[in-house]
């Protein structure tokens, strides 16, 4: 990664060999920035995901993920499990598709996040059990604000005090098919 200073903002440009994301498959990892207005992870080349998470007990907090119209997804969390797994105070912008893609995750918490200006849905949640999304905003995405869907057995997802505004499609869609 390259570290740049833009005023009081630290920008980490992810330079990858080919379309590789920042991939974290571990347990108990905490990535905490200085705040969404101060710590930015930015895609510098085309890639499938800017940040890929798989594991338990993770905390991702106080960052901006700028897909820079180069990454398909801003954040893809696959099998992010356990109640200690939290994504909070995150801003995800300019993904070619979904800003935040939560996939087959169990008992995790997403709070105080903003997904803005993405090519697909702001938040796309598929096949999650016991997932809580609270105080989140989806703004000006070219898809829906929030999409909650299942293709196999899903035990529930809670959306609490969330806003969807200026999105090209529905603010919220709940479906039993991938969509």
Notes on the structure:
There is one protein chain. With 179 residues, the protein is mostly beta strands. 0% of the residues lie in helices and 56% in strands. The protein contains no helices and 19 strands. The strands form 2 sheets. Strands 1, 2, 4, 5, 7, 9, 11, 12, 14, 15, 17 and 18 form a 12-stranded mixed β-sheet that branches. Strands 3-6-8-10-13-16-19 form a 7-stranded parallel β-sheet, with no helix packed on it. A hairpin with a 2-residue loop joins β1 and β2. The chain is globular, with a radius of gyration of 15 Å. The termini are far apart. About 3% of the residues have low confidence.
Report the β-strand fraction as a percent range: over 45%
Number of helices: 0
The averaged pLDDT comes out at 85
Q: How many individual β-strands?
A: 19
Q: Give the quaternary arrangement of the chains.
A: single chain
The sequence of SSEs as H and E is EEEEEEEEEEEEEEEEEEE
Most strands sheet? 12 strands, mixed
Q: Helix coverage percent of residues?
A: under 10%
User: Unreliable runs, pLDDT <50, ≥5 residues?
Assistant: 14-18
For the record, give the distance between the C-alpha atoms at the N and C termini, rounded to a whole number. Answer: 34 Å
CA-atom Rg in angstroms: 15 Å
